[in-house]
């Protein structure tokens, strides 16, 4: 495998911000021209964390797009994870913090993006220490949160109660820590953690994960942490994961313990299959470029994957191609991918 | 207590030295009601001081609101007024790549010059590299909040507002023109003229300037009906002419009333004179490469051409000055104003002096009208000294000090002015320009000095800048770039910086590890990982702790925590909690080298698993597997002694297997020996008794004995 630059390089715009950007997500567009993003900021000068809804103006006249803040919500602590559910025109946001609380926010994009805190879980014992990841069920009313404390919580928010109720699905008592989570279906989700481990859960089955994946990693390879998981709605048998040392792999639940390595060291292949050596912060199936012919791709092949890493690489990886497409993202594809990039040049 | 004023309820802090002339008192609002008993001051992030104020406990022991203590952060220094902190950070981040690129090019040039002895390292592309660096840095200094430029050209607007200039950019451009554009020294006077045109407004804050006079006049202009009657009109025009702002002067001249159609016929001669002066101004010969489009004046590159044009131009001015038309000009202000402008163009020293407001403006006017052929820093310096004598100033602007230092060819003064006026960023980056072409400066700045602890001035300033970067959470991650460019102390300080980073936040931890990877600081990596491992372990995140200690290959600590883990294993590893342990055991993996003493857990899991399967009814095969696990556990030196009895007790079912003995003679002997060893160990005072029924040992011994008998019979 080798890398090649894309034939038509996409443009990357930099929008320097004066604060840390802890997380950023697109909100589903109200209309094709109106695009909004939710950005979790941390102002190091004043020690104040916040989430802002910003209008993204593609600004065809000017050289770069602009962000216009619409509304802001002050968070009690820095945001450790931010997810959105794509309901329009009032998208829901789930924000987890380093102090171990979870906040459900609703934003009204038609009325100037006003953001309101719908509900909060912050009681002692929800998580001990930071919540490391959350995921909102698409269109649903449930949110799953995990932490390095080994707790897996299911938060349901039905009705307008400002206090959320949560159910402890599992508590590993810190013996296992979880760093990533992703819904697969209304009842199933996957978590990731240390040692490139992935766990498959079914909330109908109590007492722990249904399946665990450790992987037969090559000898001598240093292990790492899973930072992000994605599961394609049409291929629930495969978990896509990205983490330390530029590792991107997929776990096909039908194929037990052998990882399908898309990028990373120690894969046993030529060393140039390494896209990056640093942390892969986000992985996502490329839902934009090949929407039409997904059905043509064999179910054993991994769909094209978008990644972003600490060293500022934004790339699309395709399995089994002569070369991996390696290019920069267009900003409006997914701001989330640009997250780390902005973080590196935050000033 | 020193440092706290008697009025402790308001909590005013007083500087400790009483002889300090300007003792400033800054009240701190800490909101504590009870009197202060203790005060602790420490550095926080960046320029902040952290003041912890402890209240005295109330005498009656009751707890009131406002008791206890408060921590207040005090920010010292307001920073640079004209550049916001966010802009500073943008500059800091933006200058990283030009700096790193120049360093790598320097190294390449240097190593190349080692091979060919007779070629100077600084030729060929060298000046291009320096210039590229300087331009890249300069581009970062553009002010972000630039004023809007009007679309329509207002005839009455004499000065256009472009971007708001900053002293930092002005200073960098000075350094660029004197050090980076070295080969073009003969154009320096004209470059300074342009520079002043861009940055004269910067001096307005502390000194009267031509620019401020123009701005004032611009405000009045709207209300003026007959401009030429206002003496200020002529004054301002003379001043603008003196500093060479030709376009402005010509534009202002055309505002003269004689141009108005209704007056043209009465004031024909007057208008002719105004226009003649305007034409002369726009034809002024300039010794320079080229002009921006639309700028007035005629450029000459070669000295003889220029001198010829200059003489001709002055001849024309003299001719106009002595012409008879002046007597026909009825308007007195116009006559006097125009003639004083001619004096300026002729280089009349008194006229120049009265038309300018500070020494730099006077200096520039001398270049333009008296000594356009000035070449060389020495003569430029003496001219500057003369201008300062003519227009002395009480206080010097930071840019003026810099100019004097540059003209005086005194590298140390330039550095000191950079540091004083613009801070460590400026010095660290300006040194690249200072050393670019001057052997003297290079020697001075690269020489290792005893009084600096064996480092050079260059390294000192880079270290200082890196220190500033490291103390802010938003910029610490770019400090390594500067530290590694420091030969002597850089690496050590980099290691300290990385070791100092907090490990609580995973992202920060991973960033530190990433930086270690880039600079191949493997020992620092493993140290950081160890610290992180112990931190997580202590906070109950056992899995994370084990992971980091495994990554660090820290056998010692893994063995230590293994002992602690075994304690909880003995108590909690029941069937219900097995799922919790499962994850940790998976994390440990099969590679026993990285697992340390925890290898035991892995085998123990296998053993428990097969035991459980027996209960599930998958009889003999599972039982055989369980026996294998048991034997390998008992053979393995990493199995702690205190687990021997619980293991054997768990295996009673195997030992008493009904169908046939599962253990052969030698296996049984091994277990019996272990049991004997255990009995001996129980006599020692440090033995830890397991929580098993008291008859456990005997029942195991009995089972083993029975099994031995059966095994002998079978064999």
UniProtKB/TrEMBL annotation, chain A:
GO cellular component, one term: nuclear pore outer ring
Keyword ATP-binding carried by entry: no
Keyword entries, A-Z: Nucleus, Repeat, WD repeat
Region Disordered, annotated ranges: 57-83
Low complexity bias locations: 58-77
Chief place of localization: nucleus
Keyword Cytoplasm: no
Subcellular location: Nucleus
Lineage top rank: taxon: Eukaryota
PANTHER family on file: NUCLEOPORIN NUP43
The name this protein goes by in its record: Nucleoporin Nup43
Organism: Gossypium raimondii (Peruvian cotton)
Automatic annotation (TrEMBL), chain B:
Protein name: Nuclear pore complex protein Nup85
PANTHER family with a match to the protein in the record: FROUNT PROTEIN-RELATED, NUCLEAR PORE COMPLEX PROTEIN NUP85
Native organism: Gossypium raimondii (Peruvian cotton)
Subcellular location: Nucleus, Nuclear pore complex
Molecular function as annotated in GO: structural constituent of nuclear pore
Subunit-structure text: Component of the nuclear pore complex (NPC).
Flavoprotein listed as a keyword: no
Similarity section: Belongs to the nucleoporin Nup85 family.
Function, as annotated: Functions as a component of the nuclear pore complex (NPC).
Pfam family, one: Nucleopor_Nup85
GO BP term, example: positive regulation of DNA-templated transcription
Domain of life: Eukaryota
GO cellular component, one term: nuclear pore outer ring
Main location, first listed in the record: nucleus
Membrane recorded as keyword: yes
Keyword set, alphabetical order: Membrane, mRNA transport, Nuclear pore complex, Nucleus, Protein transport, Translocation, Transport
Lineage of the species this protein comes from: Eukaryota, Viridiplantae, Streptophyta, Embryophyta, Tracheophyta
